[in-house]
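Sample entry as discussed:
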Amino acid sequence: MIPKKAFFVKGVGVHKDKLAAFELALRNADIEKYNLVYVSSIFPPNCKIVSIREGLKHLKPGQIVYCVMSRSETNEPNRLISAAVGLALPNRKDRYGYISEHHAYGERGEVAGEYAEDLAATMLATTLGIEFDPDQAWDERKQIYKASGHIFKTRNVTQSAEGNKHGLWTTVLAAAVFVLE
């Protein structure tokens, strides 16, 4: 059971009930119709990244769908929350890559996204034996990773939001969703 395709989504939801806010975030991300099963962080070999529209064509309501998801929620007015998934792919499609999840409070979406991307790339770099200084800035390490010829692509998808000013629950999520067919 190895996924052949994957797509990336993000969403935000606001409601007086915590669970309903999560449901609204799933709806905003177009994945509310599925029974989601969280898996760990390996991007399968030979798995193709497709658009949300293309990925959804292969799923049916009620289907068990595997995903890597990051989620954050708050009911504190104006509290900044973010959820991000990062991806790092090796240059050879027949090798696996990494997906990372990162969720944070008080962190802008751009920062959370770069952190998730950095984390995925660092996990992949360590498995490929790429030498690097972990104290270097992400931009510097990104250049080293790409110059090594082993890491082909990195990216992230991130959702951030401020907690509802009236104290309603606010949920953000980002996910890599797998298609088995």
Q: What stands out?
A: Residues 5-179 form a domain with the Pyruvoyl-Dependent Histidine Decarboxylase; Chain B fold (CATH 3.50.20.10). The chain has a mean pLDDT of 94. The beta strands are 5-15, 35-38, 42-43, 48-49, 64-74, 80-90, 97-105, 151-162, 169-179. DSSP finds four helices and nine strands in the chain.
